[in-house]
Amino acid sequence: MKLAERMKMLRLKKGLKQEEAAKKLGISMSAYCRYEHGEREPNASVLWRMADFYGVTIDYLVGRTDTP
Fold it and tell me: What is the largest CA-CA distance in the chain?
């Protein structure tokens, strides 16, 4: 599973809209949408925030492992 797919799955699991997730992560709505649609890759600091926010490892988030 790719980063974009994991992001969407984790966001939906939390019951959030893209706008809400972006706000909680401190990034723009457009950046979040681009990440979730696979149009852009987040930098390391954004990946750390996402992993912390969703309660998973970065390896899980980027698809290197299936263990959250």
Answer: 29
Integer Cα distance of 49 and 54 in angstroms? 8
User: Taking 90 as the threshold, does the pLDDT of residue 1 lie above it?
Assistant: no
Distance (Å, whole) CA 45 – CA 12: 22
Instruction: Check pLDDT > 90 for residue 30.
Output: yes
Ordered alpha helix ranges (H), the chain: 3-13, 18-25, 29-36, 44-54, 58-61
Task: Kindly report the pTM of this predicted structure.
Answer: 0.92
Q: Token pair for residue 8? A: 């969407």
